[in-house]
């Protein structure tokens, strides 16, 4: 399913820019801001996040919301604390999307979260 989505995105991109060679290729744009209209609107900030159960961060609430929209199963409490449940959800999400399962939310994980939280289907 992930392969199908990637191929669809590549085809759509090629159709948008025209025939290869007619337009010079550029590097990929950064992931869209984290605000997901009608779903996750806590903050557009996407800092590196990791296990910190006693530290509140608004970006953790954003990540928890995006994880809830990206996967089936029990929803995380969107409390802004990166505890054990959030860590486990991040690991599950990373494994489902083929990312390195390091339990950190960095650029690659944010990018996949932004895609899946906007989607009408689930990563896993």
Structure at a glance:
This protein has 124 residues and is mostly helical. 44% of the residues lie in helices and 6% in strands. The chain has a single domain (32-118), classed as PGBD-like superfamily/PGBD (Muramoyl-pentapeptide Carboxypeptidase, domain 1, Orthogonal Bundle), CATH 1.10.101.
Q: Quickly count the domains.
A: 1
On the 0-100 scale, what is the average pLDDT? 81
Helix-and-strand structural type: mainly alpha
User: What's the CATH superfamily, by name?
Assistant: PGBD-like superfamily/PGBD
Order of helices and strands: HEHEHH
CATH topology: Muramoyl-pentapeptide Carboxypeptidase, domain 1
Can you tell me the residue ranges where pLDDT is under 50 for at least 5 consecutive residues? 1-31
Helix content percent band: 40-55%
Termini Cα gap: 10 Å
The largest beta-sheet arranges its strands as: 1-2
Question: Largest sheet, if any?
Answer: 2 strands, antiparallel
Number of helices: 4
What radius of gyration results from the CA coordinates? 16 Å
Query: Which class in CATH terms?
Result: Mainly Alpha
Which second-level CATH architecture applies? Orthogonal Bundle
Key traits:
6% strand, two-stranded antiparallel ribbon, Muramoyl-pentapeptide Carboxypeptidase, domain 1, PGBD-like_sf, PGBDSf, disordered N terminus
